[in-house]
Automatic annotation (TrEMBL), chain A:
Domain Aminotransferase class V: 5-376
Xref: PANTHER family: CYSTEINE DESULFURASE, CYSTEINE DESULFURYLASE FAMILY MEMBER
Single GO molecular function: iron-sulfur cluster binding
Catalytic activity: (sulfur carrier)-H + L-cysteine = (sulfur carrier)-SH + L-alanine
Family to which the UniProt record says this protein belongs: Belongs to the class-V pyridoxal-phosphate-dependent aminotransferase family. NifS/IscS subfamily.
Cofactor or coenzyme needed: pyridoxal 5'-phosphate
UniProt xrefs under InterPro entries: Aminotrans_V_dom, Cysteine_dSase, PyrdxlP-dep_Trfase, PyrdxlP-dep_Trfase_major, PyrdxlP-dep_Trfase_small
Pfam families (UniProt xref): Aminotran_5
Keywords: Iron, Iron-sulfur, Metal-binding, Pyridoxal phosphate, Transferase
Protein name: Cysteine desulfurase
Keyword Protein transport: no
């Protein structure tokens, strides 16, 4: 088999061995239902309490502010739908951005059907949303602002701490004695690399999940500040303070807490390593491939993310050739989506359709080495060259010379 | 469900994720008959057709060489901007044109996306829309040949029949929408807005949706 080089860590990550080790007892011996009164059940309950403590320490909040869910999408849904529906009496206006994950955007679409009014902010060409944009968009009936911490496609990091501070000031001065504007951020992509301290971010709600930080899939966290009211999406046995019913995914919860602990512990060192590697990767691509463009902000971006557009070639075609060479990456081209529209993120930052169709996203991770990047740098230029020869795009540029009849 | 081994959500009827057949892979990784760089100036052609654009996600150009005595296309070249199945289906089409020492023009005009798909060993449903440009490019090239050789009476109008007079939407547009996965009036409207301003056209639109669904998916 060809050597496999996995460069799609923004999609999901493999489970860390140490995380798996922590999870194992809860998959077999300590299988008790945390709601049960006997010792076996209490052991599970204790483990969940410890997991909450670990996460609360990282977020600098209290364990009672941590709600476990079935993943990042569910946490986003619970935050957006739950906060909007519970606070409807105070207003029906919500502010978000055009580049949010669909877990937020489609939740907002749902709210629109329920009578809420959504303002979707357009980012600048690098994908950055500014504090001024948010302040300008706030209306007396605004109840929620939801902005992602870092974008999953282009890796751009949003100024969450700055927005949080500004909203705190706004709430203190303008919303005295009234319902404040709540602030939610989806931090799934940022969890392994950025600061998650709530005292600095000033968010009321924050989404995390396991599957992007070498933890298990199917488990997420919603941080919810004590006094924030949300309406549950899943009702039943009253678990998670009645906000997320269903027997707890104990092993998953233990795994998520351990994964987050490891990621946050190692983040400075790993970030530095990945930023260097990304710089090396981009300089190599720029040198070897003509008509290539970096998507997203040059510096304010996730350390592991490199998103580029290569002109005259289509993303899915490149991915298939890369896969044949053992390299796994992603594209924002329409051909890989169900909707037949290219990535909403790339279009929102003003990329023309043909550049969105020719986009490639490489997201590096723990296993990525310089030798891996060298291999991509060796293979990709040939793939681009081959597909460019098949493509009529280049032909179009010199049509007047060689094909007088070309324009028809 | 249809005879197609693929269902609408992109899974095979056996529940496996969609994938490309070995024939698709062969044509994708080793495309046949595309116009090589060194042929750009030298390939003699009698007709040229170009459809789509990179902005749409697919663009195809087809060059054909015609033997006027036999009324046959004897050679062709192509270029495609597009995904795996777009490249593979153009490559397969070029083989279909060239095999058996060429194809009668009248037969070439009859080639449908379904014929190309069958020869490719099937395409996942969500990729069918990628294979509908090849035959259009070929027809455009043939039209160009008719025009250049003065056979104006044989030229075809690709415009189709206008169904929605306000939006100037034709039956071809509805065909395209069905190929793009729309299965109901609502889904076609989401793509085309057809009939929104012309409610009297709705019945005909619904009939066309049924017709094309049956034609391509046997539903």
């Amino acid at each position: 088999m060809t050597k496999q080089i996995y460069l799609d860590h923004a999609a999901t990550t493999p489970l860390d061995k140490q995380v798996l080790k922590k999870m194992m007892p809860f998959l077999q011996n300590d299988f008790g239902n945390p709601s049960a009164l006997y010792n076996l059940g209490r052991r599970s309950l204790k483990a969940i309490a410890e997991a909450k403590k670990i996460i609360a320490d990282i977020l600098a909040c209290t364990p009672n502010e941590i709600i476990f869910t079935g993943g990042g999408t569910e946490s986003d849904n619970l935050a957006v739908l739950g906060a909007a529906r519970a606070n409807r009496a105070a207003g029906n206006h919500i502010i978000t951005t055009k580049i949010e994950h669909h877990a937020v955007l489609h939740a907002c679409k749902q709210l629109e059907k329920e009578g809420f009014v959504i303002t979707c902010l357009k980012p600048d060409k690098d994908g950055v949303i500014t504090v001024e944009q948010i302040i300008t968009a706030i209306k007396p009936d605004t109840i929620l602002v939801t902005i992602m911490y870092a974008n999953n496609e282009i890796g751009t990091i949003e100024p969450i701490a700055e927005i949080g501070k500004t909203l705190l000031k706004y709430n203190t001065t303008e919303r005295q004695g009234k319902q404040r504007v709540l602030f939610h951020t989806d931090a799934c992509q940022a969890a392994g690399t950025l600061d998650l301290n709530i005292n600095r971010l000033h968010t009321d709600l924050l989404t995390l999940n396991g599957s992007k930080i070498y933890g298990p899939k199917g488990v997420g966290v919603l941080y919810k500040k004590k006094d924030v009211k949300i309406q549950p999406l899943i009702v039943g046995g009253g678990q998670e303070f009645g906000l997320r019913a269903g027997t707890e995914n104990v092993a998953g919860i233990i795994g998520l807490a351990e994964a987050l602990r490891l990621a946050q512990n190692d983040k400075e060192k790993e970030n530095t390593r990945l930023i260097d590697l990304r710089g090396y990767f981009w300089r190599g691509l720029e040198k070897k491939i003509e008509r290539i463009k970096l998507n997203g902000h040059a510096e304010k971006r996730l350390p592991n993310n490199l998103n580029v557009s290569i002109l005259d070639v289509e993303g899915e075609a490149m991915l298939l050739y890369l896969d044949e060479k053992g390299i796994q990456a992603a594209t924002g081209s329409a051909c890989t989506s169900q909707s037949l529209e290219p990535s909403h993120v790339l279009l929102s930052i003003g990329l023309p359709y043909e550049m969105a169709h020719g986009s490639l996203r490489f997201t590096m991770g723990h296993s990525t080495t310089q030798a891996d990047i060298d291999y991509v740098l060796k293979v990709l230029p040939d793939i681009v060259e081959k597909l460019r020869e098949i493509s009529p795009a280049r032909l179009g540029m010199c049509e007047s010379k060689k094909h007088p009849k070309y324009k028809q | 469900m249809s005879d197609s081994p693929y269902t609408f959500d992109g899974m095979t009827s056996g529940g496996d994720p969609w994938y490309y057949s070995d024939i698709v892979k062969e044509h994708f990784f080793n495309p046949k008959n595309f116009l090589k760089t060194d042929e750009e100036a030298s390939f003699k052609f009698d007709g040229l057709g170009r459809v789509g654009s990179p902005a749409c996600g697919d663009e195809m150009v087809m060059w054909i060489q015609v033997d006027p005595k036999e009324d046959k296309i004897v050679d062709c070249r192509w270029r495609t901007f597009g995904c795996g199945s777009a490249i593979a289906s153009t490559s397969m089409l070029s083989e279909m044109v060239k095999e058996n020492n060429g194809i009668k023009i009248d037969d070439a005009l009859k080639i449908k996306p379904q014929d190309i798909m069958t020869r490719l060993g099937g395409l996942p449903d969500r990729k069918i829309h990628c294979s509908v440009l090849g035959d259009k490019a070929l027809r455009a090239a043939i039209n160009d040949y008719f025009h250049k050789s003065g056979q104006h009476e044989r030229g075809m109008v690709e415009g189709g029949k206008i169904i929605d007079p306000i939006l100037k939407i034709t039956d071809h547009d509805i065909e395209q929408a069905v190929l793009d996965g729309a299965q109901t009036l609502e889904q076609v409207q989401a793509k085309l807005k057809v009939g929104v301003g012309s409610p009297e056209a709705i019945t005909e639109i619904e009939e066309l949706i049924r017709f094309y669904k049956e034609k391509y998916f046997g539903l």
